[in-house]
């Protein structure tokens, strides 16, 4: 538990646990069914493994998460108390989408973007067999510009080095623009029309790519209308 607010208010008591750095993001990952330690790490790629382990221990001790073991495999699952946090996470996501629209350069994380895309593949939409989507972000920091999603009927892998398979299509975009597409700030069709995103490959596959992924769960959240002096 974090530092006590020394208030009997239930909001204060809840926040003693939940407002510690990264804690609610770990709950977010558990809500969307990440269960293994490495899965959780990939959902919070800038969090150290040591701190992740510490926060999980706190959540287990608080009765929000249960640590389950099956032989050598360890999984973390939400308890009944943890599952009640789902609407809290969803409400925060809706509110953040609607009212915190700006994202800074430091927020542009290609590791998180590819992990989000990986867990939102529409398997029935991709071609049969192995599909390899090569992502190229020319404006990303050196070492994070090239990514591959290797989609098979069994699983989807995220690779930051060339896996050696034939590439099905290549998606080239500014990192911010691709994140805006994922968030629903910019539609696939508009991004392709203005050249913010380019897809290279056979024509039928190029046209199909937007349908291979669902967008963020918050992509459809209505944004507020900005009132300008000329619109009065």
How are the SSEs placed, and which strands pair?
Blueprint: H1 10-18, H2 23-31, H3 37-43, H4 49-61, E1 65-70, E2 73-78, H5 80-83, H6 86-99, H7 110-118, E3 131-136, E4 146-151, E5 156-159, E6 169-173, H8 175-183, H9 188-193, E7 197-200, H10 203-208
Parallel strand pairs: 3-6
Antiparallel strand pairs: 1-2, 3-4, 4-5, 6-7
Q: What does the model show?
A:
Residues 9-104 form the HTH hxlR-type domain. This is Helix-turn-helix transcriptional regulator. InterPro entries: ArsR-like_HTH, HTH_HxlR, SCP2_sterol-bd_dom_sf, WH-like_DNA-bd_sf, WH_DNA-bd_sf. GO terms for molecular function: DNA binding. By secondary structure, this protein is an alpha+beta fold. The protein folds into 2 domains: 10-100, Orthogonal Bundle (Arc Repressor Mutant, subunit A); 105-211, SCP2 sterol-binding domain (Nonspecific Lipid-transfer Protein, Chain A, 2-Layer Sandwich), CATH 3.30.1050.10. The protein has helices at 10-18, 23-31, 37-43, 49-61, 80-83, 86-99, 110-118, 175-183, 188-193, 203-208; strands at residues 65-70, 73-78, 131-136, 146-151, 156-159, 169-173, 197-200. The strands form 2 sheets. It has a 5-stranded mixed sheet with strand order 5-4-3-6-7. The protein has a two-stranded antiparallel ribbon with strand order 1-2. A hairpin with a 4-residue loop joins strand 4 and strand 5 (156-159). The longest helix has 14 residues, at 86-99. The model has no long low-confidence stretch (mean pLDDT 94).
């Amino acid at each position: 538990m974090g530092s006590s607010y020394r208030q009997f208010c239930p909001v204060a008591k809840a926040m003693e646990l939940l407002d510690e750095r990264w804690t609610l993001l770990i709950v977010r990952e558990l809500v969307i069914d990440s269960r293994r330690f490495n899965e959780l790490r990939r959902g919070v790629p800038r969090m150290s493994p040591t701190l992740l382990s510490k926060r999980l221990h706190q959540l287990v001790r608080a009765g929000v998460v249960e640590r389950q073991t099956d032989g050598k495999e360890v999984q973390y699952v939400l308890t009944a108390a943890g599952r009640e946090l789902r609407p809290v996470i969803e409400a925060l996501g809706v509110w953040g989408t609607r009212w915190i629209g700006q994202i800074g350069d430091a927020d542009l994380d290609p590791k998180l973007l590819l992990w989000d895309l990986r867990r939102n593949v529409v398997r029935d939409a991709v071609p049969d067999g192995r599909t390899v989507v090569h992502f190229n972000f020319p404006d990303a920091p050196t070492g994070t510009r090239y990514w591959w999603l290797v989609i098979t009927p069994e699983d989807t892998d995220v690779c930051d080095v060339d896996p050696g398979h034939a590439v099905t299509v290549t998606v080239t975009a500014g990192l911010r623009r691709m994140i805006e597409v994922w968030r629903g700030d910019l539609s696939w069709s508009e991004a392709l029309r203005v050249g913010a995103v380019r897809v290279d490959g056979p024509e039928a596959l190029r046209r199909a790519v937007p349908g291979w992924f669902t967008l963020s769960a918050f992509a459809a959240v209505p944004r507020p209308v900005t009132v300008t002096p000329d619109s009065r």
